[in-house]
Amino acid sequence: MEERRENRNKKGNFIAFEGIDGSGKSTQIGLLAERLKKEGIRCYTTMEPTNGPIGSLIRQVMTGRIRMDNKAIAGLFAADRLDHLLNEVDGIAAKMEGGMTVLADRYYFSSYAYHSVDMPMEWVVKANEQSSLILRPTVNIFIDVDPDVALERIARNRFHQELFEKKSRLVKVRENYKKAFDLLAGEEKYAVIDGNQPVEAIADGVWEAVREYFGL
């Protein structure tokens, strides 16, 4: 089965999961990876910010250990994303060329949504232009969850709140996701999944949104 899948789709798919913090992206990525592997499809899961040197710096900024201007933060995310794509060891592009399907927890729509709270969305889109030219996701999966629900989940699972996890900001970020998807509707494929449902129902919605790209 695995050989037939790979022959039919020599280059892997790239599925980017998007949503405000607390939307359950990491849980759904794990469930989708398990389901795809049962179908004989090789998967690689990854996330942004990465664990690389630029990503590590971003994490220090997000937790308040380092202070930085918002434009500089947006620039760091764009740089981390390019390294995420092009890194010769475990870059997304290399994984896909090898026939691996990549499931990513965040990609450039996260930058569009979060950073355009503080600056024009057009500026953020332009700052990430190289990434979009190099690789667009096969499909973006937006898990849409109410900010109050998201914050309840965050409070249960984390000891601190990062910079982008306050309710007023998450409300704006959610609005910006929808604005960005509308703005780029002619260029990007995306599916909106109701993230307020039980985990299993969300997983079923994700599966229905992606299965066509694997011929399933």
**How many angstroms separate the termini?**
12 Å
Gross morphology is: globular
Largest sheet: 5 strands, parallel
Structural class computed from helices and strand pairing? alpha/beta
Count every beta strand, where a strand is a DSSP E run of 2 or more residues.
Answer: 5
Strand arrangement across the biggest beta sheet: 2-3-1-4-5
Count of separate DSSP helical elements: 11
Radius of gyration: 17 Å
Portion in strands: 5-15%
Give the ordered list of helices and strands. Answer: HEHEHHHEHHHEHHEH
Question: On the 0-100 scale, what is the average pLDDT?
Answer: 91
Helix content: 40-55%
Poorly predicted parts: 1-9
Mind explaining what this structure looks like?
With 216 residues, the chain is of the alpha/beta class. It is built from eleven helices and five strands. The chain has helices at residues 2-8, 25-38, 53-62, 70-86, 92-97, 108-115, 121-127, 129-134, 147-157, 167-183, 199-210; strands spanning 14-18, 43-47, 101-105, 139-144, 190-194. The chain has a five-stranded parallel β-sheet with strand order 2-3-1-4-5, with helices on both faces. Helix 3 packs antiparallel against helix 4.
